[in-house]
Write a structure and sequence with these properties.
With 129 residues, the chain is mainly α. The chain has 2 domains: 51 residues, no CATH class; 73 residues, no CATH class. It is 39% helix and 6% strand. The chain has a two-stranded antiparallel sheet with strand order 1-2. The radius of gyration is 18 Å and the shape is elongated.
Length: 129
């Protein structure tokens, strides 16, 4: 794997050390959410153990529908508005150095991967659903 691509994905991953069992926490922190998700998947995590997670939406916003790349934002966003409706929300990132299509495609693929790893599903309209 391309080392620069790996760093971009790793920047999305949080790492913390668990200091107590799930039942010992009194506030709903990102560590608690990660411990609950691990429990729900049958994984055991013990105090002193490092955990890695990607912070995800807590259900208060609409689900992720599509991840894409383009060098022509305006036209692309208008087409998506036509496809998904006038209430669709957009988030646009233009990181430095993303002038070549293959670079943007790598980021697009990484974002889809992170979404899939955290939710178990691809974005709802990513592959023509």
């Amino acid at each position: 794997m391309n080392p620069s691509r790996r760093r971009r994905v790793d920047q999305l991953i949080e790492q913390n050390r668990v200091s107590k069992p799930l039942e010992g926490y009194t506030q709903n922190t990102q560590n608690v959410a990660a411990l609950k998700r691990a429990r729900d998947h049958g994984l055991s995590v013990h105090p002193g153990q490092d955990i890695e997670y990607v912070a995800v939406d807590d259900g208060k916003t609409p689900p992720l529908v599509y991840v894409g790349e383009t060098s022509a934002f305006t036209g692309r966003l208008r087409r998506h508005e036509d496809t998904f409706g006038g209430d669709v929300l957009f988030s646009v990132g233009a990181p430095e150095g993303m002038d070549a299509k293959h670079k943007r495609t790598e980021v697009e693929t990484d974002l889809i991967r992170v979404h899939y790893l955290t939710t178990g599903e691809s974005p709802t309209a990513q592959f023509g659903k």
